[in-house]
Automatic annotation (TrEMBL):
Pfam families: CX9C (PF16860). Residues 18-58 form the IMS import disulfide relay-system CHCH-CHCH-like Cx9C domain. This is IMS import disulfide relay-system CHCH-CHCH-like Cx9C domain-containing protein.
Length: 82
């Protein structure tokens, strides 16, 4: 379902797929933790390293605020009242 902001219709499905760069690594780590009953000492070390490497590679990348839906809502809302 979409939301209406004034006369603007926003499709959340369009914006939901972006911005999840380490999702595959996170899912594999959490499933390993779940299968091993929260014992992550040695069994999930590979998944943990992959997740840490992915998170570290994403650390230096700046987020682009022009792509987020909140940026556009704030931008459109400002022009309405000023």
């Amino acid at each position: 379902m979409g939301r209406k902001a004034g006369g603007l219709y926003i499709n959340p499905k369009k914006f939901g797929a972006t911005g999840k760069p380490c999702m595959k690594e996170m899912v594999s780590f959490l499933s390993c933790v779940s299968l091993n009953k929260n014992n992550t000492d040695e069994k999930c070390s590979k998944q943990k390293e992959l997740l840490a490497a992915c998170a570290e590679s994403q650390r230096g990348k700046p987020k682009n605020p022009a792509r987020t839906i909140n940026y556009h809502l704030q931008r459109l809302g400002k022009s309405k009242y000023f």
